[in-house]
Specification:
Strand order of the largest sheet of chain A: 6-7-8-3-9-10
Strand order of the largest sheet of chain B: 1-2
Strand content of chain A: 15-25%
Shape of chain A: globular
Largest sheet of chain A: 6 strands, mixed
CATH class of the largest domain in chain A: Alpha Beta
Order of helices and strands of chain A: EEEHEEHEHHHHHEHEHEEHHH
Oligomer: heterodimer
Number of helices of chain B: 15
């Protein structure tokens, strides 16, 4: 069964169409990448799917249910989780606490139980801490567990963002440029992590500028330009598509582009 | 001695020791009175630590809830025949309900807009208390039936104590309870979500937190704290005027919270202590009292932007690591 369907999705900002009539499907365990030049509407698309923007047209269907205009926290309950291009870390909390907040849905407890620190509240706290620690281990950040997020490097925060999103036990994970600003080693680690997550059956929708990473791990690539779908297909097809090459490098860059995109 | 204790427990122990030992430094029984006032203000400030420090929301109207708590204790025994302590609970419930109803629309606002909206709420309560002369006695205020603590001690334990001394220990106990609840909250599932709102509401939403609900939770809890503090002040002073609900008092509470370090319970208490005790100490400079107070506040904000306690803690940590 199709996990996520985007049907005719579009949004206008004051008369300017940022994204128009977009259609695509995502299957469980599939890695689908959205590529396109800056300003193509990739992050806007993410914000519509994850309920942060309300689309002007079209529908988002998650597991057969129309979830268009649903609030982000309701979408999270239905198994959609995301990271952000511009980091949205909880700066004053430790790395561990950042991931623990991600476990919110499994540890929600009555307020009075937390105020009085009843045994049920402490038990949930302990379970969450164990789960968050395991996730930090997965992103190789156990050493940073008790450091405040504001003191961590950009690359580390990117990975904490992923761990936090994973803490929601998502069925579909939206990753907005997870490797941006990371060095080669970190990028490779993230690339392995994404492949691993997908293998566990989590669908991944990825926005990324690192073409090497995109071409290597994606099952399916969608190229956007000016808010419209330019091309869609397997990575090998997309990298040879003349329209995609032109959008990225202009019509004169053909040869170099073909080389760069591998 | 340095065996590992959770920060929550450590904070409570420090607070208990400070409350227990402070009277040894009191030159006269007048200081028991100052101490009690510090405890009562601290309770209101702890509520604001939860709202401002944990959840990152501002309120310039919390004195309004103190006003409700105070007048509940003034009116409850007279009109409803309630015990003063039951009136305190009633006041807290009324404040919490009001915060819940008003908080829903107000907390959609952010930053300056939220500040102005809460300011309006506080002024509204203050005006009602001032203008309902028949019920509240208007600007002249009204007398409040006391808790009769000294009498209770004399009858049950059989020795005579000064009212201010009994109140010191009673207020200290209430403060410990208030601090205990807030410290429990800090590292709990609910507390973590509140603290996450402080840094990124959008990220909190995407992990499934109902942000509107949690803001409301913080607002309601802090309103209850402010109300209990107002009730205690009324019962302690045995007299109350609408000034307790005034805008100036709201600002005072926020200043205490920020001055001490909004993020921590002990910081908030430090702020409340400084701003409650200083005017008493500064009376020797009588004409310049307010100038000195303003100067100290400005200096703290310029040189200790995180607040008194967090800055001092950072300095000490820096010294500990050579």
């Amino acid at each position: 069964m199709t996990l996520l369907s985007v049907i005719g999705l579009g949004i206008d900002f004051g008369g300017i169409t940022a994204v128009n009539a977009l259609d695509f499907d995502v299957q469980p365990g599939e890695i689908v990448s959205i590529i396109g030049p800056n300003g193509a509407g990739k992050t806007t698309l993410f914000n519509m799917i994850s309920g942060i923007y309300q689309p002007s047209r079209g529908h988002v269907v998650l597991e057969g249910r129309d979830v268009t205009d649903m609030e982000p926290h309701k979408l999270a309950e239905r198994g959609m989780s995301r990271t952000f291009q511009n980091l949205q870390s909880f700066d004053q909390m430790t790395a561990l606490e950042n991931v623990m907040v991600g476990c919110h849905m499994s540890e929600r407890s009555p307020i009075w139980a937390d105020l009085l620190r009843l045994p049920s509240s402490s038990r949930r706290n302990r379970q969450t801490q164990e789960k968050a620690m395991a996730l930090l281990e997965r992103v190789h950040l156990v050493k940073a567990a008790h450091m405040e997020a504001s003191s961590l490097s950009y690359g580390a925060l990117k990975r904490i963002d992923i761990a936090r999103a994973l803490a929601c036990d998502p069925k579909i994970l939206l990753l907005d440029e997870p490797a941006a600003g990371c060095n080669a080693v970190e990028t490779e680690e993230i690339d392995e992590l994404i492949a691993e997550i997908a293998k566990e059956g989590v669908a991944i929708l990825l926005v990324e500028h690192d073409m090497k990473l995109v071409m290597k791990i994606s099952d399916h690539v969608i190229a956007l330009n000016y808010g419209e779908k330019l091309a869609e297909g397997k990575p090998s097809e997309i990298s040879r598509d003349p329209k995609v090459v032109e959008a990225y490098l202009g019509s004169h860059g053909g040869k170099e582009a073909a080389h760069a995109l591998g | 001695m340095t065996a590992y204790l959770p920060p929550r427990v450590r904070a409570l122990i420090i607070l208990t020791i400070l409350i227990a030992l402070a009277p040894m430094l009191f030159p006269s029984s007048f200081y028991y009175r100052v101490g009690t006032l510090i405890f009562i203000n601290s309770i209101a400030v702890i509520g604001l630590v939860i709202l401002i420090g944990y959840a990152g929301q501002i309120s310039l109207g919390h004195a309004g809830f103190s006003g409700i708590g105070a007048y509940a204790c003034a009116l409850g025994p007279v009109h409803l025949g309630l015990h003063p302590f039951a009136s305190l609970i009633l006041g807290a419930v009324v404040s919490a309900l009001l915060a819940w109803f008003v908080g829903r629309p107000i907390l959609r606002l952010k930053g300056h807009y939220l500040a102005v909206a809460t300011l309006g709420l506080g002024m509204l309560i203050s005006m009602v208390l001032t203008n309902e002369t028949q019920l509240t006695g208007g600007p002249d205020g009204m007398a409040v039936e006391g808790l009769g603590l000294a009498k209770a001690v004399r009858e049950t334990l059989g020795f005579k104590v000064k009212t201010s001394v009994v109140w010191y220990w009673f207020g200290g106990g209430m403060l410990l309870i208030g601090a205990w609840l807030a410290l429990n909250l800090y590292n709990s599932p609910t507390g973590r979500v509140l603290r996450s709102l402080h840094d990124s509401e959008i990220a909190a939403k995407t992990v499934g937190a109902d942000v509107a609900r949690y803001k409301l939770v913080a607002f309601v809890i802090s309103a209850a704290y402010a109300s209990v503090a107002g009730s205690l002040l009324a019962l302690f002073n045995r007299f109350i005027t609408p000034d307790i609900a005034s805008f100036l008092h709201s600002v005072e509470l926020v200043t205490m919270t920020v001055l001490g370090g909004a993020g921590s319970v002990l910081g908030g208490i430090a702020g409340a202590t400084l701003l409650t005790a200083l005017p008493q100490v500064l009376t020797m400079f009588h004409e310049y009292e307010h100038v000195m107070l303003g100067l100290i506040m400005m200096l703290v904000m310029i040189f200790m932007r995180d607040g008194l306690l967090p800055t001092l803690r950072k300095l000490m940590l820096r010294r500990a690591i050579p």
